[in-house]
């Protein structure tokens, strides 16, 4: 009997075909670099503070996976004093736009069996594994790229739209976004709370984790990031039938309303060291 693919397998297959996001978040689309930078403005301070507290500093050789516009990679060089940062992404046009001493832009598919950029003191991946098939396997692969004593730091999104969340257009729109991205490009955040356990399974030691949950403030980078993300993902979101265009429009208005109170999806950061 022929195997019938499950919806999850079909979503992952679609992700493979679309290179993990290019169907929705295409680097060549106008404003995509600005959208990525809005996310960086919301999360970079938390990321770089954690990396400093973990001891990342002068002389370190670092791999930044899914580097986007390169804000974390450049901070590692300019603020932490890293000796070298290899910044890898599926498309490096944003990285190449600002050449930086010590920064090597590497265009590659990190899921490819041929991806072997070397050994590093730090391997960092933020908002990457949630879009890829088999995050546990990817954590194993990234951990294998660490030099002895090296540090793996992984951050991904935590969905806060639980059954106890207030029912309003914002939570409905967020739920539709996660479902729509899952259906189209394979995004899956359900595994993220298990990330620390996965790091331990990969053989890392001194594993720990923290969650950062940004408040939603009108005009803030995180609010603007979600507006731009929803704009690109609208067809996928409405296709879920969880929301219609009017609901998304109302959610956008909520993010601009001074009286609206809410929180962005969280960012869970987990880390561990190779023995």
Write the layout of secondary structure elements.
Layout: H1 7-17, H2 32-53, E1 61-65, H3 71-78, E2 84-89, H4 93-96, E3 103-107, E4 120-126, H5 135-144, E5 146-158, H6 169-185, H7 195-201, E6 205-212, H8 221-239, H9 245-256, E7 266-273
Helix pairs in contact: 1-6, 2-3, 2-8, 5-7, 6-8, 6-9, 8-9
Pfam family, one: Methyltransf_23
Protein name: Methyltransferase
GO molecular function: methyltransferase activity
Task: List key phrases describing it.
alpha/beta; 19% strand; 275 residues; seven-stranded mixed sheet; disordered N terminus; Rossmann fold
Strand content: 15-25%
Overall, the morphology is globular
- For CATH, the homologous superfamily is named as Vaccinia Virus protein VP39
Radius of gyration: 19 Å
Give the helices and strands as they follow along the chain. HHEHEHEEHEHHEHHE
Helix content: 40-55%
**Beta strands, count:** 7
Q: What do the pLDDT scores average to?
A: 91
Which structural class best describes the helix and strand composition? alpha/beta
The CATH class turns out to be Alpha Beta
Summed up, the domain count is: 1
Name of the CATH architecture: 3-Layer(aba) Sandwich
Give me the CATH fold name.
Rossmann fold
Adjacency order of strands in the biggest sheet: 3-2-1-4-5-7-6
The separation of the N and C termini measures 46 Å
Instruction: Please report the number of helical segments.
Output: 9
Largest beta sheet, briefly? 7 strands, mixed
Give unreliable regions as ranges.
1-21
GO molecular function: methyltransferase activity
Organism: Streptomyces pristinaespiralis (strain ATCC 25486 / DSM 40338 / CBS 914.69 / JCM 4507 / KCC S-0507 / NBRC 13074 / NRRL 2958 / 5647)
Protein name: Methyltransferase
Keywords: Methyltransferase, Transferase
């Amino acid at each position: 009997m022929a195997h019938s693919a499950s919806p999850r397998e079909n979503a992952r297959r679609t992700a493979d075909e679309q290179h993990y996001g290019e169907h929705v978040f295409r680097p060549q689309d106008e404003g995509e670099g600005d959208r990525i930078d809005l996310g960086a403005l919301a999360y970079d301070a938390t990321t770089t503070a954690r990396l400093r507290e973990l001891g990342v500093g002068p002389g370190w050789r670092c791999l930044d996976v899914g580097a986007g516009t390169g804000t974390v990679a450049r901070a590692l060089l300019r603020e932490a004093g890293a000796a070298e940062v290899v910044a890898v992404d599926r498309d490096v046009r944003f990285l190449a736009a600002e050449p930086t001493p010590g920064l090597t832009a590497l265009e590659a598919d990190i899921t490819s069996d041929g991806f072997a950029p070397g050994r590093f003191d730090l391997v960092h991946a933020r908002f990457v594994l949630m879009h890829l098939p088999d995050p546990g396997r990817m954590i194993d692969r990234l951990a294998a790229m660490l030099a002895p004593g090296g540090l793996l730091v992984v951050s991904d999104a935590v969905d806060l739209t639980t059954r106890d969340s207030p029912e309003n257009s914002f939570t409905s729109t967020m739920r539709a976004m996660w479902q729509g991205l899952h259906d189209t490009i394979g995004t899956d955040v359900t595994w993220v709370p298990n990330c620390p356990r996965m790091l331990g399974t990969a053989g890392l030691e001194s594993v720990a984790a923290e969650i950062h949950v940004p408040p939603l403030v009108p005009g803030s980078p995180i609010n603007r990031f979600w507006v731009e993300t929803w704009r690109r993902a609208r067809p996928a979101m409405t296709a879920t039938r969880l929301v219609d265009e009017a609901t998304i429009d109302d959610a956008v208005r909520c993010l601009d309303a001074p009286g609206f109170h809410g929180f962005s999806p969280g960012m869970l950061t987990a880390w561990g060291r190779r023995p």
